[in-house]
Amino acid sequence: MTCENRLKTIIKNWFISEPLLFSIITTHHLVMNDGLSVAMRTGRMCIEFSNLLCSELSDTELTDFLKIETYRILLKHPYARQPYKANPTALQLASDVVIAKYFVPPSGIESAGIVYLKSQAWRFSTLDYPLGKRWSDTDELKFFQRNLQIDRNTGLLKTVDDLTFEQWYKWLLFLIRETSAGGGEASGAGALSDYDLSAITESAELWQEDESAQNQIDDKIKKAEIENGWGETGGNLVRTLQEQTDFSFDYRRALTKFRANIVSVNRRLTRMKPSRRYGFSAMGSRYERKADILIAVDVSGSITDESFTRFYHAIKNFFFLKIIENIDLIFFDVNLKNTSPIKFSKNLKLAEIQGRGGTNFQPPIDYFLENRSRYSGMIIFTDGEGEVPKMTGGSGNASILWILDSRLAYEKSRWWIESLPGNFGTFLP
Fold first, then answer.
1. How far out from the chain centre does Cα 215 lie?
2. pLDDT tens, 359-380?
3. Average pLDDT over the chain, rounded to whole?
4. Residue among 61, 70, 63 at smallest CA distance from 21
């Protein structure tokens, strides 16, 4: 079996046992590169591997190498913003050391970062070692002197929890510079040669800041959080990912987009305002800041009074009473509960509305499209549990915002909401 097929088999097995790692690695392409001096490297949305070097690895070792690279992606090291004139060797070594906090390879292989720290363990025999006088006045040095200890015999890190990827980069860069300046280097088994360090530099050649890649990774982490799909990922790493990932979602951005959409619909041509390009010889335009909207509220059994209250306050407190001239409400479950819309009021309560059946989105969609001339847009509040509606008769310039009552409901429904023309969604935190 080729190395590529072996790697694909490992990835396939992760589908059940490691859903997070599976979702992360499937965002990248496997690319064979026998010109590599290392078994694998990551960057630019691919995992390059040397068929020659990987063929010498056992299945367990190959799995461990692949898992290390997947953790590297998960932690976004290849796609994060790099320091000015970043040293790729120090970046790769720092990444290795951080990964070692969360993953100890069962095969016993050691990453280059751990090997390098072992080769420099003699520098940490005492806490009062005169570490780099040129750094003596910096907070970084004081931090390292206080927190960083390595067992001289085993090379294992004693205290690493407080050290970030950026801090490790600074520290390892300092060690590399000290060694190159004649500060000495440990000898013996495990010490890295100049050739080894050049290979490490090669490992980080594909690294570059990529916001799109970071967003993709964040989306996978958010999905794992929602579905509890962490698999065998350790608790320490899960907590780190949760701390580093922004799980907040500002529904007000979606409301701002909706507002912009409905206001743009009310563009009016006028000669009272000159055109910016042609002056009074051509008609200018102005926007009517008042608009009418329709709000459809799901009153099926799965919508609680509490979630409706949160929705009501979100609408009331954002902007609508200042900008929207008129807000009409309709209520629905399998059918419309009111044949004529009611006006938005300050004291409306869901318990006063008769319903609590199943959910059918087609009646409110049809009502909005049939009365398209009356409304600039529509908001639908629901849990998303129902059949996908059809935009019958054409959507025109419809702007329909779906507000889901939870993040989970939003993640389940966003694919079909965004497939409907003029429709987009958000959720209430």
1. 4
2. 899 999 999 999 888 888 999 9
3. 78
4. 70
Instruction: Spell out a b/e string for 353-365, using b for 16 or more CB atoms within 10 Å of the CB, else e.
Output: bebeeebbbbbbb
In three-state form (DSSP H/G/I as H, E/B as E, the rest C), the secondary structure along 256-283 is: HHHHHHHHHHCEEEEEEEEECCCEEEEE
Lookup: tokens for 62 = 């190959």
What DSSP string describes 341-385? -EE--TT--GGGS---S---SHHHHHHHHHTTTT-SEEEEEE---
| 10-residue stretch averages of pLDDT, the chain, 429 residues long | 94 94 95 94 96 95 96 96 90 92 89 79 46 41 52 49 77 77 45 66 92 88 80 85 73 78 59 54 54 87 78 71 73 87 72 68 92 89 91 70 87 87 86
As a whole number of angstroms, the distance between CA 194 and CA 334 comes to 72
- Residue 29, H or E segment: strand 29-32
How many CB atoms within 10 Å of residue 257?
Answer: 14
Does residue 296 sit in helix, strand or coil? strand
Residue 89 CA to residue 356 CA, distance in Å, equals: 62
**Buried b or exposed e, range 191-210, using 16+ CB within 10 angstroms:** ebeeebbebbbbbbebbeeb
CATH 3.40.50 fits 251-427, yes or no: yes
Q: Which residue spans of the chain are classified as CATH 3.40.50?
A: 251-427
